[in-house]
Amino acid sequence: MTLDKTILDEEGYLLDLADWSAELAEQLAAEEGVALSDAHWEIIHLLRNFYEEYGLSPAMRPLVKAVSKSLGSEKGRSIYLMTLFPGSPPKLAAKIAGLPKPANCL
């Protein structure tokens, strides 16, 4: 199944959050060269819950804090998140989770 690019903005983020699904997440991840594992899904679900609660996609510091609080200090580290979502974990994880780009990420 090919990714329908018309549902994405120019940076590859979902235009309508309601269009998100696990299948779409797999497609978005594949486009970014990421094979989703259970560890990825933990972060994706955490991000979606964060967005639901606060109405925004977290930048790195709040993301690390939320992961640490929810999943423990071993996973609540930027190095761990970078192994899962290379480059900019907040941006890449938000994209795959079907959320808007974090506001203070370039």
Task: Walk me through the structure.
The model has no long low-confidence stretch (mean pLDDT 93). With 106 residues, the protein is mostly helical. The longest helix is centred in the middle third of the chain and has 17 residues, at 38-54. The protein contains five helices and no strands. It is globular. Helix content is 51%, strand content 0%. α2 (38-54) crosses α3 (60-71).
The residue fraction in helices comes out at 40-55%
The multimeric state of the shown protein is: single chain
* Terminal Cα span: 30 Å
Helical run tally: 5
**What is the strand content?**
under 5%
**Rg, please?**
13 Å
Sheet/helix structural class = mainly alpha
Q: Note the main sheet.
A: none
Observed structural traits:
106 residues, 0% strand
Summarize this structure briefly.
This protein has 106 residues and is an all-alpha fold. Helix content is 51%, strand content 0%. The chain contains five helices and no strands.
Fold blueprint:
Elements: H1 22-31, H2 38-54, H3 60-71, H4 78-84, H5 89-96
Helix pairs in contact: 2-3
